[in-house]
Amino acid sequence: MDPVKSKPPSELRQGLDAQQSPASPARRQPEATSDTLPAVLPPLIGALVGVVIIIAVAIVLGGPSGGLTALSAALLGQHSAWYLSRASAFVAYLLLWWSMVLGLSLTNRLARVWPGGPTTNDLHEHASLLGIVFALLHGLVLLGDSYIGYTLPQILIPFAGSYATLWVGLGQVGLYMMALVAFTFYVRQRIGARTWRSIHYLSFAVFALSLVHGLASGTDSGTLWAIWIYLSTGASVLALTIYRIWTRTRPAEPQPARLSTEG
After folding, report:
1. Who's near 71: CB < 8 A, 6+ residues apart?
2. What secondary structure, in 3-state letters, does the chain show?
3. What letter would DSSP give residue 169?
4. What is the mean predicted confidence (pLDDT) over 156-165?
5. Spatial contact of 112 and 245, defined as CB atoms under 8 Å apart
6. What is the reported pLDDT for 87?
7. Which residues of 159-196 are buried (b: 16+ CB within 10 A; e: fewer)?
8. Residue 21 and residue 39: Cα distance in Å, rounded?
């Protein structure tokens, strides 16, 4: 008896398929890539942007009153801490605004257009943390200023200072609330999504307190450029918030019926 014919048809078919189909090439293992650089880039870029904003604000503050001579005096002179505090205040505020825009774009699903959900979430987190850093710089650098003479307890305890007590105190409360919101990034799995979301709503209060703090107690609030900063940032956050509410409350669009392809 022919040994080939004695095999069952299923075994014959498998043997022929094995002979006819070429051996699949070995898959190339992806090279191991380091995630260190992508993780470090956002905070580095944010810090660089913050330094650039500080320099730009310093130029605006010192340049018109005497050019580079006044600028160097502002940065290295007797009241350099006062100028640095004013500049870092705008950096912290703009980082907070940017964090709000990124967070609202995530909830509005606008981040799908650009740059994508995961990237937007990372930028949102880094912007919040950098905002806290520059906000702390804004307050702590006043320890070296002799114009007002802040003490450490006055900087850390809300409503304990002598200068614009109410408005400065609101800014201090906003800073602590901002730190609380940022801290929830690291305990979200422990506290649960619902609690995390509830605490995250404090971001709107943080932004409102920071805006009122800057308008009411800021030395530069009366200048045209500062007014435009506050108007544009406040209007953009308001518009994105309204759009978020609208997308959440509008009725869902009916899905078109699918045609069945089965006979």
Report:
1. 58, 59, 62, 63
2. CCHHHHCCHHHHHHHHHHHHCCCCCCCCCCCCCCCHHHHHHHHHHHHHHHHHHHHHHHHHHHCCCCHHHHHHHHHHCCCHHHHHHHHHHHHHHHHHHHHHHHHHHHHCCHHHCCCCHHHHHHHHHHHHHHHHHHHHHHHHHHHHCCCCCCCHHHHHCCCCCCCCHHHHHHHHHHHHHHHHHHHHHHCHHHHCHHHHHHHHCHHHHHHHHHHHHHHHHCCCCCCHHHHHHHHHHHHHHHHHHHHHHHHHHCCCCCCCCCCCCCC
3. H
4. 91
5. no
6. 86
7. eebeeeeebbbbbbbbbebbbebbebeeeeeeeeeeeb
8. 44
Return left, alpha or beta for 164; rule: phi > 0 is left, psi -120 to 50 is alpha, else beta.
left
Joined together, the tokens standing for residue 224 give 């045209």
Helices 224-249, 202-217: axis angle to 10 degrees equals 160
Say what the pTM is: 0.71
Chain centroid to CA 162: 32
Token pair in block for residue 126: 């880094």
Residue 204 banded pLDDT, cuts 50, 70, 90: very high
E strand or H helix at 38: helix 36-62
Q: Which amino acid is at 83?
A: Y
